Amino acid sequence: MIELVRPTTDLSDSWWAMVDEFGDETIHGSSYRPSDRDALRGPEVFEEWVDWLGRMERPDEALPEGRVPSSNRWIVRDGRVVGTIAVRHALTPSLVAEGGHIGYAVSPGARRQGVAREALRLALALAAVRGIDPVLVTCDVDNVGSARTIASAGGVVEDERDGVLRHWVRTGAPARPIGAGPIETRAARLVPITPEEAAAMRAGVRRADWAEGYPREDDLDAVATMTSGPDAWSPRHVVRRSDGLAVGSIGCFGPPEDGVVEVGYGLVESALGGGLMTDVLSAMVRSLEASGLTVVAHTEPENVPSHRVLARLGFRRVAEAEADSGAEWLWARGSVRGAVSET
Length: 343
Known about the structure:
With 343 residues, the protein is an alpha+beta fold. An 8-stranded mixed β-sheet has the order 8-9-10-11-12-13-15-14, sandwiched between helices. It has a 4-stranded antiparallel β-sheet with strand order 1-2-3-4, sandwiched between helices. Strand 14 and strand 15 form a beta hairpin. The relative contact order is 0.09.
C-alpha cells in the first residue's frame, strides 16, 4: 500500500536508508541537499528540519527567497520511505520553466513498480484539495518513465524548454458559483472593480497599488460602460498576491445568454510568462461552470500565448468569425450547440 505521509522523525531511520540508496542522485520533491547531510545527522537538527517541512504548508510561514508554500510528503510503502513528493501551492518563474507544482522522486529499488504512478495520483488529489487546477508537472525530456507516469495521470505536454518537458494535468478542484464578491486564486485575488475605480481608470488617475502599465486599453474598454455597483459579471482587478498590485483585469461580456457566458482577460506585460494568467482564468472559469454555465472566449488568430492558456484549461477552438478588428477565433469548454456552429 502506497501512502503520502507528512515528514516525521518516527521514520528517520527509513528516511536515511532511502537517502543512502539515492547516493549522489538528486532527490526531487524532498527539500534535501546532499550538503546538508552532516548537519541533519544530528537528531535535534533533523527534528527541526522535519518541523520546518511541515510549516512550509502554512501560507503565513516566512520562507527563504525562491521558496513557495508547499505540502511536503514522504512516499511510504509498507511502513518504509521509498520516495518524496512535494505539492507546491504557487509557481515562481523558475518553477514555471522547470520545477512545476509537483516534484517527486522514487528510490532506485522501488522503481518500475507503480509507486510513482500511485504517489502522483495521491498528490493530484492533494492539489485538488488546495484548489490547484491545472497543475504543472515536469520531467527531463529523456526520462521516458517519468513522462509515461505523468501521461497516465492525464498530463498534456505544452512544450519542451531546455531539455525539460512541461505537462499540465487537470485535478478537478471544486469551485464556488460565481458571485459579486472576490474570487480567490493561488496567486491572485479577482476583485470586482467599483464605479469609482472605473471612473479613475477612465480619467487616467494613477494609484499606488496599480502596476506600471495598468490599466491597459483593454482594461479601459472593459469598464467603459460601468455605471452601477459591481455584480457577478463585472470586470475585476487581477490583484497579485506577491506584491498586492493590480496587474490586469478579467470579467464577462455581460450576463449569460442561453446558459453561455463569454470571458475577457489580460495582464500587463511585466506579469506575463509566470503562469499567472492560467491560474486566474482557471479560477474564473471554474466559478462560472459551478454556476451551470458554458464558458467561451474570443482570441485573435495570432495571439498564440492566449491560445496556449485556453488549450491547457481544456478549451477548444470551435468557430472563426469576422469582427470589426478582423478575424476572431471562438474557444469553448463543453457543448455550445445552439450558440455557435462548430467547425
